[in-house]
Write a structure and sequence with these properties.
Helix content is 47%, strand content 22%. With 119 residues, the chain is an alpha+beta fold.
């Protein structure tokens, strides 16, 4: 919470897509961030995702935004996955797609379900 308190100015003055990994009481974090206009979007395990924007996002917009945010992690992780796993294709707009497999593919499937359930 000290780190978040130190970021109060940044949180209040910017549009934000934020991921926080927490193994403690999520209620305190959610309540703190709501004071700065951030909306809890979903969680995957200990990772909580929050969004603050003056724009209203469609389901596709939000999926594309999250896809761009996750792309570096996906690129890093896909090198370590077994080729025998069931792959999944993720599209980030009309011109870009990524194929992943293994546990990261399952994470992507879970993310897709969570994003669809928001709308």
């Amino acid at each position: 919470m000290n780190v978040l308190s130190g970021a109060a100015r940044t949180l209040s003055q910017n549009n934000i897509l934020m991921q926080i990994e927490s193994y403690s009481d999520d209620v305190d974090i959610k309540a703190f961030l709501e004071n700065f206009g951030l909306r809890f979007v979903f969680n995957i395990g200990p990772d909580m995702y929050f969004l603050k924007s003056d724009k209203t996002f469609s389901k596709d917009d939000l999926c594309n935004l999250l896809g761009r945010a996750f792309l570096p992690m996906i690129e890093d992780r896909k090198r370590t996955l077994s080729s025998s796993d069931q792959p999944i294709n993720i599209k980030f707009g009309p011109e870009m797609s990524l194929q992943i497999s293994g546990s990261l593919a399952q994470t992507a499937r879970n993310l897709k379900k969570k994003a669809k359930s928001l709308f």
